[in-house]
Amino acid sequence: MQQHERPSGRRPAPAHPSRRPRLRLALATAAAVALTGTLLSATAGPATAADGTHAPRADFNGDGRADVLAGSYENDGNGAVLYLPSNGTKITATGSRTVSPSASGVSTTGYPNFGANFAD
């Protein structure tokens, strides 16, 4: 059996395309937001909320619809990030995820109210 070498620097294409890598990216981004308080260029552009304020739009699960990523200071001040997908007409809890430092294996010992920094 003859083996073919692939060109260096190129990854083989996945056997079955999947949105799982994008969801993992979204959850990793959520964890980074929870830990740093910053969303690094993951936004696509402004959207107008019902009250007239602007909110960034981003498609975290790859379905072509803008999703929401929100930080909070819950869990005794340790913080969490909530991911809420869109169904095309509204934001929905179906498929939502919550990421917190403890769920990510990050200790918050010595940092009281760590998550309060991400509530705004």
TrEMBL record:
Keyword tags: Signal
A Pfam family matched in the record: FG-GAP
Instruction: Tell me the first and last residues of the signal peptide.
Output: 1-49
Q: Among its keywords, does the record have Lyase? A: no
Biological source species: Streptomyces hawaiiensis
Domain of life, source organism: Bacteria
Q: Where is the composition biased (Polar residues)?
A: 95-111
Q: What is this protein called?
A: Integrin-like protein
Q: Where is this region: Disordered?
A: 1-21, 95-120
Q: Which residues form a coiled coil?
A: none
**Lineage of the species this protein comes from:** Bacteria, Bacillati, Actinomycetota, Actinomycetes, Kitasatosporales
Keyword Signal in record: yes
Q: Which Gene3D superfamilies match?
A: Integrin alpha, N-terminal
